[in-house]
User: Which sequence fits this backbone?
């Protein structure tokens, strides 16, 4: 059965290593779940390898230009209102993750020095 799983995984045309890993992972989980009823049997999906994703496998970061960013922010202001536009503009230009921005409190912002403190666990 293991060789059948390997052959099946190899026969599929995966676009990227990440896509392969995303396809194999749920398969492993399904077999893990199914074989809980039969602990005396070896799960054939255990042996399926995950592919190591290296730096060269990752897509290059393609940041927005300032004019593109301003166009997006203007659209958010228009479609969602001033507060949502300001919220997203702040995150866009600070690089904060959504969870980091959500965790900010007034005391974390020093407007005089133009600094924010990001120190809460996510």
Assistant:
């Amino acid at each position: 059965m293991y060789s059948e799983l390997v052959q099946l995984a190899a026969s599929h045309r995966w676009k990227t290593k990440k896509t392969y890993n995303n396809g194999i992972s749920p398969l492993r989980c399904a077999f893990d779940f199914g074989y809980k009823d039969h602990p005396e049997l070896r799960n054939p999906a255990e042996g399926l390898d995950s592919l190591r994703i290296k730096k060269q496998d990752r897509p290059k970061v393609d940041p927005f230009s300032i004019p593109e960013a301003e166009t997006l922010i203007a659209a958010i202001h228009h479609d969602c209102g001033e507060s949502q536009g300001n919220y997203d503009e702040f995150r866009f230009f600070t690089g904060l993750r959504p969870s980091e921005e959500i965790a900010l409190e007034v005391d974390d912002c020093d407007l005089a020095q133009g600094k924010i403190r990001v120190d809460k666990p996510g």
